[in-house]
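Weekly structure sync, notes
Attendees: PL (lead), two postdocs, one rotation student
Agenda item 3: pending single-chain targets
PL asked that the sequence for the first pending target be pasted directly into the notes so everyone works from the same version. It is reproduced below exactly as submitted, 461 residues in total.
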Amino acid sequence: MMKSLRIDKAAHEGARLFSGQDLKKLIIPLFFEQALAITVGMADTMMISSAGEAAVSGVSLVDMFNNLIISVLAALATGGAVVTSQYIGAGKKQDACKSARQLIYSAGLITIIISVLVILCNQGIISLFFGRIEKDVFVSAVIYLVISALSFPFLAVYNSCAALFRSMGNSQITLKVSLLMNIINVAGNAVCIYGFHMGVAGVAVPSLISRAVAAVVLYRMLLNQENIIHILKGRFHFEWDVVKKIFYIGIPSGIENGIFQLGRVLVVSIIAGFGTVQIAANGVANSLDAMGCIVGQAMSLAMITVVGRCVGAGDFEQVRYYTKKLLVMAYIYTAMVNSIILLTLPWTLQIYGLSRETTELSYILVMIHNFMAIFLWPSSFVLPNMLRACNDVRFTMVLSIFSMLTFRIGFSYIIGVHMGYKAIGVWIAMLLDWLFRTLCFAGRCKQVLKKLRNGGMYENL
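Predicted structure, written out during the meeting:
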């Protein structure tokens, strides 16, 4: 799809592919959607805390594995979103619709296979990733993993459909469906945990139901032929040329995300050896840390849509313009959100009702993460999506895997285990990973933009 195209410098805002109002309509719902997802995640952790620290630990461990699966599915959806956005930018709406259908069915089929394997090998997976953990934590983890695995196909369809609506610039739809999904989830948690005293299952079952409902709703909405992107009618068959384009972006991104999340799982397995207090504090801190990344997550999704469409239109000057604009916005609002979190942290931690030792450790971990996120997170995780939207997926994959293995895992052993800093040492290693990613992605971005500014072909980068 990529070819040599001239740079078309936009002289004024009216020449831009996205006006300021267009960006607001895209980004604001994305922000609230991410905030909603994170808030519900925090609510899950708070609710399950009533079942004891073993339940909190079991859920937090499995969530790390679940995030590995979810990140792979999200990468496949990203591949579909990039291809679809480029087709829209190029004015090829029929091809955009073809890619949409191929994305949804491919993601669904792949995830069914994954779910079956996870359910069959649930105990082996937990033992493999987390080693010898306390018996009550192990039991909680098994229950949560099996029920979570049943929801993977629904989540794959939901992610794919949501990515397609974002490619159309219609993030309001995904926000509304996300709201519905999370209302079902929270209400279900309250009933199952406090009403039926289902423990860990009380968190997992509502998630399964809510994801199924959201997937069905978004899929049915995409059947509407009036949408720019819609599911074409007729008998389905795989169109391998379209699937290949989606996988060209999705597979490297999936490998990258999968290795990244696998690295996080391995890091948590290191923390699991430090005891229940360290595991629980890590889980609570992760739920609060995610709040500080809300803006960055929204900007990452927006970067795919905006830059992908600019690439499809062949307007590489606007690639530069919107990359800079979105990155600056990500830094400003990330600083604002994290500042609020840090100022209110002592009162927020009281809500969890954990032991004094766990609370104190959670405080330190959140302070490490959210303070440094102000300076490093956007360039580490938002900027790479500009490269992915330009089809530069191999570089991001190789760099991310190297950084994860070298810094996040390697230095976790050095600082956390051998130097005796435990969870705090693991999180210091994470900061080293961020710093390396920032330096490398910033340099690569400059290289790509310079090449495009000189009118060179992208494939020669």
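Discussion points:
- The radius of gyration is 22 Å.
- The chain is about 80% helix and 0% strand.
Action: rotation student to compare against the earlier draft before next sync.
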